[in-house]
Model the fold of this input.
Amino acid sequence: TQGTGRCRAHTNIALIKYWGKQDEQLFLPMNSSLSLTLNAFYTDTKVTLDQALKQDVFLLNHQKQSAEQTLKISNFLDLFRHKYSISAKICVESINHVPTAAGLASSASAFAALAGAINEAARLNIGLQELSTFARRGSGSATRSIFGGFVEWQKGTCSTDSFAIPLDDAAWDIGMLIVVVNHREKIISSRQGMKRTVETSPFYPAWVKSSEKDLVEMKKAIVTKDFSKIGELAESSALKMHATMLSAQPPFTYFEPDSIRVIQRVQELRKKGLECYLTMDAGPNVKILCRLTDMDKLKQELSTEFSQDQMILSGVGSGIHSLSEN
Ligand code: DP6
Done:
């Protein structure tokens, strides 16, 4: 096999969070989750199958990556090589388009773009739903980055039925303002953090139960285009997830003093009639869900406390697409 493929994937932010696996090997989640794909952050990946290569090569932002980083990519590529009997070694060249200060995880867009690029390079013709099961094996949240707009990742029962489905990618008056509180390395990776939470938090079973209920409500709110309900459910899902971490053993939190400041500002602004809701992931940055038409106002309100380069705006992003000309 010889060939190249080029693919772009956008990152996504969960509105109903994924936090915990029932199978770590297969990346089967404990609960279904739901996200919004963002247009501001994406990864472009080129894959070249090359019989002449002795081993896989991984370049990120033009820099050759370490053996350890390359091994993670090789293991992921093996999923395709095994299933489709591909023997060639592979060169992966990725460019992350994430504003340098954003400090946002890029594993979601990275594995979705890689899955798309290998699908094209090896002419596998894997459909998007099935492709999302491959992306999942790189990083759980990557499952959802295959599609644009609102996306559900159904937890499923086994590897083949734990996939993403697109819910709505119509033009919405919705966006996110990301407040960058700190872009240092995470104190604990999401992979380790969720594992510890599942194993030790007495609140974990309640989290799973409440997520399933929130998901049903969220899907209704999307169908009825009920922005307020979407925001309330998203904020609640994020805060409940973070509460499970404080109750883990040993306890941990991604909150920093400035994260709390943003949370308080969001709640105040809401009281003043500016409808916005927050969500947070495995890091201290706060993402604020708002109407696109309120974005400038929101930014202005926050600019008394946060600098211009601490605030990044994003609209809704699309699903993966090929960057090849032919
Ligand atoms: C808090 O997808 O990064 O962002 O599956 O172990 O790679 P792995 O974890 P990852 O976890 C994401 C956790 C989250 C919530 C979410 O995106 O749903």
Summary: The helical segments are 67-84, 107-121, 128-136, 190-200, 204-223, 227-246, 257-271, 295-302. Residues 204-223 form the longest helix (20 residues). The two ends are 19 Å apart (CA to CA).
